[in-house]
Design a protein that fits this description.
With 113 residues, the protein is mainly β. The chain is built from no helices and eleven strands. The strands form two sheets. Strands 2, 4, 5, 6, 9, 10 and 11 form a seven-stranded mixed β-sheet that branches. Strands 1-3-8-7 form a four-stranded antiparallel β-sheet, with no helix packed on it. It is globular, with a radius of gyration of 13 Å.
Length: 113
């Protein structure tokens, strides 16, 4: 059975950092197109970034470029989203998904002083 399990959300002050983890089962992250999206309160879904099997094919939304980094640990079959220099506007529910429609549950991130 295919699953994605998110973890690592929480409350952080502006300027702080968090790392989200997305543990996959039932498929291999390193051979899949993986995507991070987020949904701020009262807003629609916003694409954050994508990583393809060739890690050189990693892309970011302009709103997070230079602050967020997508990586993966093939041995752990886990995708990560490292978020640095967080801003209040980064407050959202974050989701990882496998292109094609496999979603993890949301990980809430709140950036507030």
């Amino acid at each position: 059975e295919v699953h994605l399990v998110n973890s690592g959300g929480g409350l952080v002050q502006p300027g702080g950092s968090l790392r989200l983890s997305c543990l996959a089962s039932g498929f291999t992250v390193s051979t899949s197109a993986m995507i991070w999206v987020r949904q701020a309160p009262g807003e629609g879904l916003e694409w954050v970034g994508s990583m393809y099997p060739d890690i050189r094919d990693t892309y970011y939304a302009d709103s997070v470029k230079g602050r967020f980094t997508i990586s993966r640990d093939n041995a752990k079959n886990t995708l990560y989203l490292q978020m640095n220099s967080l801003k209040s506007e980064d407050t959202a529910e974050y989701y990882c998904l496998k292109k094609g429609g496999i979603w993890g549950q949301g990980a809430p991130v709140t950036v507030s002083s």
